[in-house]
Design a protein that fits this description.
254 residues, mainly alpha
Amino acid sequence: MKPFSWRFIRMWQRDRDVFLRLWHAEAPGFVAEPIMILLAMGLGLGAYVGMVDGQRYIEFIAPGIIASYAMFSASFECTYGSFWRMEHQRTYDAIIATPLSVEDVVAGEIFWGATRSLITGSVILVVATVFQLVSSPWALLIPLLSFLAGIMFSSIAILFTSLVPSFYSFNYFFTLFITPMFFFSGVFFPLSSFPEIVQTISWIAPLTPVVHLTRALFWGEFHLNLLLALALIIVLTFFFFSISLVTMKRRLNI
């Protein structure tokens, strides 16, 4: 595996410039939707659910919404977005004709996906703060955690993108991988409410440690198993990042 160079920033800048021109068209997806879900579920369903782990329901789900939509932002950017640039626009072919390598292109895509996660997480955090749902100054670290989680989910998405034959294949990725994590990683309900086997399987999902860390920063409540959650994120990030560099190079036949 060849390491990427500092030139990956040029790919990141390319994606940033496109985003700055089109942000108004993408805003409903990465800002409006999570805010509507937070308010609809938190205030609507919350009126019937009552207290969860000593918190109002909207207070309980707010950290999970931040974590999950950080995942969605990175995943959409590095699946549909990356596939379109690779197969239809042929952006990758054009860029690797310059001094940038395949590794630089992939790293730039991954870090841009992480930047999208940071933006999404930060916006929802601001909204949660306005609604007085944040209880700890440690929440200021949530954008950093969103960025780290974004690297992990972008790496997973790029790996899948390097293997699929068409756009339609992403239905499997989102239906069988992303959506189950959304519902079974502690976003809407405590893991303790699930059967023991589901609790065990939930910790295999990359979103679960992100939700736990986000909730801990939200409330300023820390315990030792959070170190395990952080270690799991770092290990998964390194693993999928490294593999995606190899598989994408094979995909482009370089």
